[in-house]
Design goal:
The chain has helices at residues 3-13, 26-34, 46-49, 61-74, 93-106, 120-128, 144-147, 157-172, 185-194, 215-218, 235-251; strands at 18-22, 39-42, 79-83, 110-114, 133-138, 177-181, 198-202, 210-213. By secondary structure, it is an alpha/beta fold. It has a single domain, classed as TIM Barrel. An 8-stranded parallel barrel has the order 1-2-3-4-5-6-7-8, surrounded by 7 helices. It binds 3-methyl-2-oxobutanoic acid. 3-methyl-2-oxobutanoic acid is lined by residues 22, 41, 43-45, 83, 136, 179, 181, 202, 212, 214. This is 3-methyl-2-oxobutanoate hydroxymethyltransferase.
């Protein structure tokens, strides 16, 4: 097993929590590594928070490889996760393996794909061929056009049971990690206890093995953030203030200063 991943497995067994954040470029990866993050996710959320789209469906494999290359240069000891974007893996296990290969060559350590039990054969195909897979269930943003909105999942008894089943099937198929997005805390806690894979929660309560947040939410770079995200900084406002200050200085002749020579 990848040395970095065995540390995650050990931490799950010993109840030590791990923290991830999304990163889309070199500086963010460098800050994350210096801050002691355990992992960075090159998420296809970049379609929304970097490109300004309404959802993640326009993101391409080429874009994901481009951003993964930048991130791995700054990621240091962080485990680098990268998303397979919509349309690059759903058709067949072979298609997923080829797309995952492109992300691995770009520098990813772990490849993430969305979907439940229907993706188990793909997870097994890739895992058996040495690719570290992270599954992603619950709210899967690539299916948002099918659902019509970003909806919490697993809120009914039947929904919760379906999620538990999917998590155990994906873990048994060889997924090393399972992201649980926007699911009830109790469901996430139960799944985390029951499966071998390391669970990574987002909007899933405190009892998953690890947590992930979108960097733009955590840092206050988005205008609005989902209710489960904590904004640790209002960097967007601070950037805007700094830029306005610069405009003012230029307008008033305060910048640049006059030099003697
Ligand atoms: O793309 C992304 O940022 C993600 C996280 C929300 C888990 O998939």
């Amino acid at each position: 097993m990848h040395k970095k991943i065995s540390r995650w497995v050990k931490d799950k067994q010993q109840g030590r929590k791990r923290a991830l954040v999304t990163a889309y470029d070199y500086p963010m990866a460098r800050f994350a590594a210096a801050a002691g993050l355990h992992g960075v996710l090159v998420g296809d959320s970049l379609g929304m928070v970097v490109c300004g789209d309404q959802d993640t469906l326009n993101v391409t494999l080429e874009q994901m490889c481009y951003h993964t290359r930048m991130v791995q240069r700054g990621a240091g000891d962080c485990l680098v996760f990268a998303d397979l974007p919509f349309g690059s893996y759903e058709k067949s296990p072979e298609q997923a393996w080829e797309s995952a290969g492109a992300l691995l060559r770009a520098g990813a350590d772990v490849i993430k794909l969305e979907g439940g039990a229907e993706m188990a054969a793909t997870v097994a195909f890739c895992a058996e061929r040495g690719i570290n897979i992270c599954a992603h269930i619950g709210l899967t943003p690539q299916r948002v056009r099918q659902w019509g909105s970003f909806q919490r999942q697993g809120t009914s008894d039947a929904g919760a049971q379906r999620l538990q089943h999917e998590a155990s099937v994906l873990s048994a198929a060889g997924a090393r990690f399972v992201v649980l997005e926007a699911v009830p805390d109790v469901v996430a806690a139960r799944i985390s206890r029951e499966i071998e894979a390391v669970t990574i929660g987002i909007g899933a309560g405190p009892d998953t093995d690890a947590q992930v947040l979108v960097a733009h939410d955590l840092l206050g770079l988005e205008v609005e953030s989902p209710p489960f995200a904590r904004r640790y900084l209002e960097a967007g406002q601070q950037m805007q203030d700094a830029l306005a200050h610069y405009v003012e200085d230029v307008s008033n002749g305060q910048f640049p200063p006059r030099r003697a020579h």
